[in-house]
Q: What sequence folds into this?
């Protein structure tokens, strides 16, 4: 009874609705049956829907079918506007991320960090060099980092993260914009390749859900102005690494993408070099299947992952995890896979000219035979390293930076960022770092790090065009609004970069006696007992007792020998 | 009184002694590797062998302790004053003059007073020190989270190493003393065959003969 009533009701409703629709369209009521009218609206909307007879694809949306993505597009923001017509909240999410703001509030130190604010040991500062530096920004047209990016949803660059056509690129001096027809002569992309005209329609129709390693890598592998220059553990070798280079990302390994560990929520990604997840605060209270929120080893592997080589060693290896970060043993060296990283950058020698012209020296030979610059008139002297042994330190993951107005002591090597934590802190671990060695300009009177203006063809001050430190620093400081005495010098610096990528296979992890030995890898680490690294007070005392016993016995034996002889002769 | 070869060391006694000897040697060797005194063999292998052998030795000790207390063998190890000075004087002086050892073994007291005192110290102080510190070291994973700065672990490890050296010193003296008197082979043989030369009164002789614990006279 009930079912029948329902059917009748549905029929009546359909007739009424259908008739309503028909009247609204002012078509004669008799021509079209009410039911067919309802069908036509549905089929309009679903005109492009795949049918059961079509192949099943991963995504629920084929972006090549959307009219709004058929173009033409004159610029990146026009593509973004098209994206926003469906994904109305996407730009808002992105604009709340570090990727967009280049600003990071470090709650534990109270410092305001991020590319827009800090000074580093590479190109120094973004301010006054914008269009070159912001070429890697997740947006378009950020030409003045002294002010935040304007609240303009169309300025978000969706394609840089979501393109899967492989031909989207950003030009290296257009404040984040892609090279478009006509491409300027000698223009380069941010990966250093000769620029090509990007096909925005092709890119827009290709978009996929999560960024692939190509999307991430095209910016992050080239940080510091070139392949692997900055991080040491992030290079183009990770596009297609062997398991030796990266067991997680290798196609012969887990074939993972960056985003598999760097999980995201509302376009904000886990993982930070300002506050690194040295320990995973939530690994213990996660329920099965619950999404992870942090990019830490233990969030997948737990803090007791070792099963072998035998149960005893497995247990003993697990005993290390309360003091030693996974990375320390499992990334014995970085800058693997044939791509070197910059280890020393001495700005103080920049600006030398030969016959009034800038010159370069290429004296580092990479394992693939490629010569890398060891001197540039624009940038100074360099050293490079491949398969570099990390620098180890206690770390709770929190970095404290030497901010632009921090007073420095130029007689000491200045730490651009200092590593927080120590042996007494339960949340600290012994962690590997790339220690970048630098020599950077500072205001010799005010004892603060100096902003430099390096990029700006035609502006009369940029170091890379005019090779004049006086002008470069004056312009940089003025632009940043920092008081400048006019006197400068160069200070030796260290900058620490956490090493967490390029994990090798387990049989390539450090062996026990890499550390458990005299002058082992962790010889500079205090506050942890490391058998084998030296003999303690107990051992010294014990050795004395042992030697006394041996000497006593030997003396006793010798005396007996003489005694017996004496007795014989007697 | 006659000196006869009596079965002083039972099979368990001898197995206990020699497996202890082998274990302790292995522990010294692997322990020295872990401490960094030599580099023979991988560190991880040394950890494994050291742990397995130590646990096996602890099990053996558990059996031996049970055995000692159920057979009254423990009484052999109770130190006493009587005759101590005489034995001490012998090692410090008489031995150089070619004197005879002042102590004659009996079935109930096979150790001389100095020996008994040394074994007592070994069993009551050094062995507990080494295995308590060793077990704590082994179970670091259970309590280590509260040991920030490694103060406890450092203390435990130092006690462990100190006790190990003290035991090693004992072993040196122990082996050296085998060379005194009738000679090394004479001293080692009883721990292999089980028979040692004991002063027996005729009644005792008859008793052990009946028990089948007397070695037949060779000539």
A:
């Amino acid at each position: 009874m009930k079912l029948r009533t329902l059917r009748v009701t549905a029929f009546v409703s359909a007739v009424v609705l259908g008739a309503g629709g028909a009247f609204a369209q002012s078509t004669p009521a008799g021509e079209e049956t009410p039911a067919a009218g309802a069908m036509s609206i549905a089929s309009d909307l679903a005109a492009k829907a795949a049918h059961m007879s079509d192949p099943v694809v991963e995504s629920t949306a084929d972006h090549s079918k959307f009219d709004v993505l058929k173009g033409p597009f004159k610029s990146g923001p026009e593509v973004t506007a098209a994206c926003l017509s469906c994904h109305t909240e996407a730009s808002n999410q992105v604009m709340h991320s570090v990727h967009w703001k280049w600003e990071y509030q470090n709650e534990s130190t109270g410092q305001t960090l991020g590319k827009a604010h800090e000074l580093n040991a590479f190109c120094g500062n973004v301010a006054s060099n914008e269009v070159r530096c912001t070429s890697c920004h997740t947006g378009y047209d950020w030409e003045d980092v002294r002010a935040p990016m304007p609240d303009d949803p169309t300025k978000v660059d969706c394609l840089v993260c979501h393109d899967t056509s492989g031909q989207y690129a950003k030009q290296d001096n257009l404040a984040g914009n892609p090279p478009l027809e006509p491409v300027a002569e000698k223009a380069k992309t941010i990966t250093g390749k000769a620029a090509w005209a990007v096909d925005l329609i092709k890119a827009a129709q290709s978009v996929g859900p999560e960024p692939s390693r190509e999307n991430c890598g095209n910016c992050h592998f080239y940080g510091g102005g070139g392949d692997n220059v900055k991080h040491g553990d992030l290079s183009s070798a990770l596009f297609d690494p062997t398991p030796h280079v990266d067991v997680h990302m290798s196609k012969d390994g887990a074939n993972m993408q960056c985003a598999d560990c760097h999980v995201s929520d509302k376009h904000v990604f886990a993982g930070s070099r300002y506050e690194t997840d040295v320990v995973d605060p939530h690994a213990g209270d996660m329920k099965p299947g619950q999404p992870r929120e942090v990019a830490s080893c233990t969030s997948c592997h737990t803090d007791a992952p070792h099963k072998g080589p035998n149960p005893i060693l497995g247990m003993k290896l697990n005993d290390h995890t309360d003091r030693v970060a996974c990375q320390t043993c499992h990334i014995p060296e970085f800058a693997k896979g044939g791509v070197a990283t910059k280890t020393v950058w001495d700005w103080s020698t920049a600006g030398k000219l030969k016959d009034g012209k800038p010159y370069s020296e290429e004296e580092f030979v990479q394992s693939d035979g490629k010569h890398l610059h060891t001197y540039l008139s624009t940038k100074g002297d360099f050293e490079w390293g491949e398969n570099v042994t990390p620098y180890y330190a206690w770390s709770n993951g929190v970095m404290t930076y030497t901010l632009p107005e921090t007073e420095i002591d130029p007689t000491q090597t200045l730490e651009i960022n200092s590593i927080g934590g120590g042996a007494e802190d339960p949340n600290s671990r012994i962690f590997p770092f790339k220690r970048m060695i630098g020599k950077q300009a500072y205001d010799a009177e005010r004892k603060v790090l100096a902003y430099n203006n390096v990029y700006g063809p035609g502006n009369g001050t940029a170091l890379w065009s005019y090779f004049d430190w006086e002008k470069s620093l004056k312009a940089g400081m003025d632009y940043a609004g920092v008081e400048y005495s006019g006197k400068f010098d160069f200070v030796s610096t260290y900058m620490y970069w956490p090493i967490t990528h390029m994990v090798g296979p387990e049989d390539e992890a450090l062996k026990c006696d890499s550390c458990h030995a005299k002058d082992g890898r962790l010889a500079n680490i205090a506050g942890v007992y490391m058998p084998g690294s030296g003999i303690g007070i107990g051992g010294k005392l014990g050795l004395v007792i042992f030697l006394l016993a041996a000497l006593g016995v030997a003396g006793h034996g010798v005396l007996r020998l003489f005694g017996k002889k004496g007795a014989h002769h007697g | 009184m006659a000196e006869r070869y009596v079965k002083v060391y039972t099979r368990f006694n001898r197995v206990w002694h020699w497996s202890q000897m082998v274990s302790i040697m292995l522990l010294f060797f692997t322990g020295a590797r872990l401490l960094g005194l030599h580099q023979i063999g991988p560190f991880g292998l040394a950890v494994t062998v050291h742990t397995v052998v130590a646990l096996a030795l602890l099990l053996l000790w558990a059996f031996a302790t049970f055995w000692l207390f159920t057979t009254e063998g423990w009484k052999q190890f109770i130190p006493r004053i009587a005759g101590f000075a005489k034995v001490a004087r012998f090692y410090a002086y008489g031995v150089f003059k070619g004197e005879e050892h002042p102590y004659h073994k009996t079935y109930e007291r096979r150790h001389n007073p100095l020996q008994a005192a040394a074994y007592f110290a070994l069993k009551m102080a050094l062995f507990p020190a080494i295995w308590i510190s060793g077990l704590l070291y082994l179970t670091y994973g259970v309590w280590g989270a509260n040991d920030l700065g490694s103060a406890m672990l450092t203390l435990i490890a130092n006690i462990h190493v100190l006790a190990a050296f003290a035991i090693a010193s004992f072993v040196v003296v122990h082996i050296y003393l085998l060379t005194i008197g009738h000679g090394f082979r004479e001293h080692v043989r009883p721990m292999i065959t089980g028979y040692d030369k004991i002063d027996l009164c005729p009644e005792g002789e008859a008793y052990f003969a009946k028990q089948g614990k007397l070695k037949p006279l060779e000539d």
